Amino acid sequence: AAAEVKRVGCVGMCHQTPLVETIRGDGTSRLYCHVQPEQVEEIVLQNYQPTGIVSRMRTSWSKMVAELYGRENGAESSVEAVSPKEGPVCEFLGPQKRIATESCGDIDPLDLSEYQRHEGFVALKRCLDELSSDEVISEIERSGLRGRGGAGFPSAIKWRTVRGANAETKYVICNGDEGDPGAFMDRMILESFPYRVIEGMAIAAVAVGAHQGYFYIRAEYPLAVERIRHAIAECEAAGLLGDRILGSDYSLKFSVKEGAGAFICGEETALIHSIEGGRGTPRLRPPFPAESGLWEKPTLINNVETLSLVPWILRHGGDEFAKFGTETSKGTKVFALAGKIQRGGLIEVPMGVTIRQIVNQIGGGVANGRRFKAVQIGGPSGGCVPASLADTPVDYEALSSVGAIMGSGGMVVLDDTDCMVDIARYFLRFTQDQSCGKCTYCRIGTKRMLEILERICGGEAKKGDLDLLEDLCQSVSSGSLCGLGKTAPNPVLSTLRYFREEYEAHLAGHC
Ligand code: SF4
Fold first, then answer.
1. What are 242-281's pLDDT values in tens digits?
2. Fewer CB in 10 Å around end: N or C, the chain?
3. ipTM above 0.85, yes or no
4. Residue 79: per-residue pLDDT
5. Which CATH number fits domain 112-322: 3.30.70.20, 2.60.40.10, 3.40.50.300, 3.40.50.11540?
6. Taking the CB of residue 401, how many other CB atoms lie within 10 A of it?
7. How far is CA 146 from the centre of its chain?
8. Do 187 and 224 form a contact (C-beta atoms < 8 A)?
């Protein structure tokens, strides 16, 4: 059987992979989940549509199926298609809004002409030909876009600061050093939509007046590195990067720098040190990178997801983007939904949906019939939101009011078999391990905190350990230089706030 095979980017349904979608000649499509190599042939046969006077072929086809699979013509197939219009797939995809992940499942990540057929580089062209830098930045401001890497800083303020900086040389950097346990949003976007991220970064560069850009991508993402390198080369060959981009008089060059796997290099100033060839350690701010960044030049650093939203905003207008979301958190957010959930994967939802909607509707609820206990949001800097607060909307301020943070978008669902002290210990072990060691509170304070958690979990807690742990949380948070240390206590603080009885049960020797 013959069929044209096309590889597409991630559609987010990790719980259904390997996933195959068939498109018949009449345009109807079918989805096949958990496909095994030996089923592929049968899938092709199922979708074979003879046309015209080919009844003889139909017959031989049926015979072939019987021969191939040892079944009589008409016998029931072992491969079943699922409907994208109803059932679990529909529940998973239905509430989502695709902006950063627009056209997922449709386009070949490496096919530049296909990206262009989907309005790729239309926004960049407009920024070069029709809009002034101020107009581009105003559009970003109207959209309400905030940084998707964690802190949620308004993007337009950053862009305007770099634009306004008085320097001949400026830089743009795409921060692809995603390192939170359980998070893989940036990886998916880089691998599946390399041209979109390049276009977003090119728009940012033109808006702020930068002619050189760097993709900083962790080396543990080799496919992302490979695809971005390939996409940059394709763009250079097509005149979308290089001298006189898109026929304008603007020159723009991008290159890739691979991170060596230190979590702290996701911090802007550490990332800059790393590109400069130094050790990836943060420094005091100010000056902010927007004023003095890479090689002491004004530098715009945006995260992968933030940049991937930019082309859509410029094509549709900031006001359209701002129609999604809440008063202070506009647009969409990509989350990596993982843990004890029926349907895990990558989702892009409008801001303002509740945690409960994500867990129950999109995720299909907690797996194995267990009770939904909490969601850990925001990775090692984030916190645990208990099921009783699951109606909290996905919104920067709402999440921080309950002790979590949006973070980069890791969302780990926990059930009633999970020990919350153990969860706190897990995340603290991670931050302790990743501390760059520059400041004492972070280097030593997290170590002492971890020792206490190990003692509590091991049934060897000493009198006063809980008080000491709480004291250390405050000291580490206030005495650390960068976000890693300042937020390291969050998983401990949020579990102490909502699940203190579990700490006390450990102390009393009940578990
Ligand atoms: Fe390094 Fe921690 Fe200090 Fe940040 S807070 S600079 S990670 S020691």
1. 999 999 999 999 999 999 989 999 999 999 999 999 999 9
2. C
3. yes
4. 74
5. 3.40.50.11540
6. 11
7. 14
8. yes
Tokens of 123: 């926004």
Taking the centre of ligand 1 as the mean of its atom positions, its distance from the CA of residue 434, in whole angstroms, is 9
3-state DSSP call for residue 217?
A: strand
Ligand 1 centre to CA of 473 (Å) is: 15
β-bridge mates for residue 258, sequence order: 217
Closest residue (by CA) to atom 3 of ligand 1?
439
Ligand 1 atom nearest the C-alpha of 482 is: 4
For 283, the token pair is: 């420094």
Tell me the three-class secondary structure of 241-260, residue by residue: CECCHHHCCCCEEEEEEEEC
Q: Which CATH code is given to the segment(s) 332-415?
A: 3.10.20.600
For residue 408, what are its two tokens? 């980069």
**β-sheet bridge partners, residue 330:** 325
Residue ranges around ligand 1 (CB below 6 Å): 264, 282, 435-439, 442-443, 480-482, 484-485
- How far is 385 from 365, CA to CA, in rounded Å? 16
Residue 326 belongs to what H/E stretch? none
Q: Which two tokens stand for residue 273?
A: 């040190």
Q: Which residue has the tokens 């560069």?
A: 205
CA trace torsion 443, 445, 450, 456 (10° rounding): 170
The domain locations on the chain are 14-93, 112-322, 332-415, 425-507
Q: Which amino acid is at 406?
A: M
- How do residues 147-192 score in pLDDT, each as one tens digit? 998 889 999 999 999 999 999 999 999 999 998 888 999 999 999 9
Question: Are 246 and 176 in contact, with CB atoms under 8 Å apart?
Answer: no
Assigned CATH for 425-507: 1.20.1440.230
Q: Which residues of the chain have pLDDT under 50?
A: 52-76
Greatest alpha-carbon pair distance for the chain in Å reads 87
Which has the closest alpha carbon to 174: 66, 293, 64, 301? 301
Instruction: Scan for tokens 């937020």, then name that residue.
Output: 487
Q: Is the Cβ–Cβ distance between 280 and 271 less than 8 Å?
A: yes
